[in-house]
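[Meeting: bench + compute handoff]

Bench side (C.D.) handed over the final construct sequence. Compute side (W.E.) agreed to return the predicted structure before the next meeting so the bench team could plan truncations. Sequence as handed over:
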Amino acid sequence: MAEFDVVIRGGTVIDGTGAPARTADVAVTDGRIVAVDDAGSLGSATREINADGALVTPGFVDVHTHYDGQATWESTMQPSSWHGVTTVVFGNCGVGFAPVHASDHQRLVELMEGVEDIPGTALHEGLPWTWNSLPEYLDALDGAKDMDIAAQVPHGALRLFVMGERGARREDATAADITEMGSLAAEAIEAGFLGFTTSRTQNHRTSTGEFTPTLTAAEEELVGIAEAVGRTGRGVLQLVSDFSDIDGEFAIVRAMSERSGRPISFTLVESSRSFDYHRALLAHVEQARADGLMVTGQTAVRPIGLLLGFECTLNPFLRNEVYREVADLPLTERTQALQDPAFQERLLAAAGGRDATLVGGRLIEKFDSMFALGRFPNYEPDPNTSIAAIATRTGRTAEAVALDALLEQDGTAMLWVPFSNYGQGNLDGTRELLTHPFTVPSLSDGGAHVGTICDGSFPTTLLQHWGRDRQRERIDLEFLVQRQCRDTARLVGLGDRGVLAPGFRADLNVIDFDRLQVHAPELRYDLPGGGRRVVQRADGYLHTLVAGVETYASGEATGALPGRLVRGPQAAPVS
């Protein structure tokens, strides 16, 4: 009789603690790791995996996604599950679908559609709306998945539920409103939500152009809800803000954590306007930590940027009157028209114009920061390879260069415009953020921005670019794995995963590191109602296991669905 369920033999184990890599065998029984043996003396197993020459890591924990809708209608959390992710956390940035009155379904769809660029038609078609309360929403999520999922309480939905039209118009909450919101948030935490989230950025708008309900919520409201969460003795807090007034906004971050006694994290990226922006925020984080507050920055592993393409939400010719003549044609016919020299001459003669009515529309002519992605994207491109730089060298217009690039791959090629973490034309600031002791890699937005962004591949870029491909100042693999596994898990209270050691969950990746490669994004029309989304595949993931069950082999789903809803914080195993 086999001694173990699974043994992964002879791999280079990077265990998630930051310890040096070592050759070892990993044994799994009943969904838990039971041994990590350096001597090669483990007994037999029902399933043996030869990992010679490969990395063996914990499964990746992605704490900033938006699978709030997808998790209700689908069992696979792709594209994240293609990138070694075995746990996702959603409900970030104050947007989600519970609590909700039946009369507010449309409002919450418009909020998610606008903030996270998920088609309203797909949401209307896919969301079953079998819930009203927050606990009922958790029950709707509680089914078999290809990874573990966890939810947070979204402030936007909570505010609409309690305050109705007053909340939508961003009126100040009364003391009674704050008490009720706090009570519902606390009830949700007790039911198994991991935390409470809010948004204070003007970049977030509904699909009708309105600011989010939470944009101007007063400190008293945010602190009051945080205090109610704190009284449960569990739960985390998450916030996104413009930090236009860094001192004033960070005072709110501090107050929420200090008054609740709970950890808080927030979006922290390099600004394109000032290299000192992220350093000023880091100084505040360091002071908060020195004062005993658990404040953490969530940062990106590469530039955050918009995808432009003839199938995407945005492209450089959106405002072009000539392009509009063919904009509604099927892709094949549109591509044929765009390839016609006479049509191109008319198109380029009419070039010009941004579309400020669309999120990101102001960037569709930012040719000096626009790059062709190609089959294998370079997310730290040389500024001399921008569309504008190529145009200058070749004596052509930037629009003409962009058009040629978009017509590659039968009209499905994409351009990319980084708008944060690339202000200096490199990723030096990103490296500074990634290696800071009080940050974690995050912000993939997996499941969101389906027509403009595809960053669910962040974990692959983290290892591929920073651990292997960057020409200078790479980062040790052991540190990168620790950050994407143990540290992200701990940030949200999931102490039972992210480490390869006895007692921890058997969420693992076996990776051919030399072949690890992010592919170019591609469009699929597989959302409910035939809605489109951008997805991104990767090479190099040989095996992904969730609770000891293989979910992906050589990048393809096995059909196994061992993942479940995680209810509440999970304690680390006792050593």
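W.E. noted at the follow-up: The mean pLDDT is 95. C.D. will use this when planning the next construct.
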